[in-house]
TrEMBL record:
Sequence intervals crossing the membrane: none
Species of provenance: Streptomyces violaceorubidus
Name this protein carries in UniProt: Aspartate/glutamate racemase family protein
Alphabetized Pfam families for the sequence: Asp_Glu_race
PANTHER family: PROTEIN DCG1
Family affiliation: Belongs to the HyuE racemase family.
Length: 241
């Protein structure tokens, strides 16, 4: 089984970290192929960057020539999963939905700890669209930018674990979801601080994707995610200069 794991930003070190986390969660015999988009922002922290990332991720997958069995969109709260589902005949798993749906097996209510406060509405909207918001106790911001997660790991861990603890104590969350693909690998430290299950979206998405492939299931094509209708698309891809 081969699974494409697509970073939503263009920072290669984040792609590498996501790929490592995905490979660690994969079963023997599953090949993880990390992809970095050819264009886009170095980090995704708002609607403009998220919509740009949606196109970049779709183009990265379309340009991949080797066969694959599933795709993981490794951005928390990002747009574009629906477009991938229209384009592909294999399962498409978004880490936002994978983390939240997994959390609901583990406790009555879950909270998401993410990066900047401006990303909170994006995550809340994605959870609502996916039908996963009813049991979400809160979406909390750590105050860190995505790239801060790499610049100062100790400060990042402290900020994330602090918000996770407050979610458990103040919001009565029973499970924590790590709300950024760049947080891959931090789950154990949050567990140590909070004592509750912590779901890493990348690891959860790998497990969901593997299960769908083994069950022989993929996206329904009868209505919402039917393939795009054949038509002329003008000036795409755009030419440099």
């Amino acid at each position: 089984m081969r699974i494409l794991v697509v970073n939503v930003n263009t920072t290669q070190s984040i792609t590498d970290a996501i790929g490592k986390q995905a490979a660690g969660a994969a079963c023997p015999g599953t090949e993880i192929v990390p992809l970095t988009p050819a264009f886009g922002a170095e980090s995704v922290e708002g609607n403009y960057e998220s919509y740009l990332a949606a196109v970049a991720v779709m183009e990265a997958v379309r340009a991949h020539r080797e066969p694959f069995d599933a795709v993981i969109q490794a951005g928390y709260g990002e747009h574009g999963r629906e477009g991938l589902q229209e384009l592909l005949d294999v399962p498409v798993v978004d880490i936002t939905e994978a983390a939240a749906s997994t959390a609901q097996y583990l406790g009555r209510r879950y909270s998401v700890v993410t990066t900047l406060d401006r990303t909170v509405p994006l995550i809340e909207e994605r959870l609502e669209v996916a039908g996963l918001s009813a049991r979400c106790a809160s979406v909390r911001a750590s105050g860190l930018a995505v790239l801060d997660l790499e610049r100062d790991e100790r400060a990042a861990v402290d900020a994330i674990t602090e918000q996770a603890a407050r979610a458990v104590e103040d919001d009565r969350a029973e499970v924590i979801c790590l709300g950024c693909g760049g947080m891959a690998g931090l789950a154990e430290r949050v567990v140590e601080r909070t004592g509750v299950p912590v779901v890493d979206g990348v690891a959860a998405a790998v497990t969901v994707a593997e299960s769908l492939v083994r069950l022989g299931l993929s996206t329904s094509k009868v209505r919402t995610y039917a393939p795009p209708r054949p038509k002329r698309i003008v000036n795409w891809p755009p030419q440099a200069g």
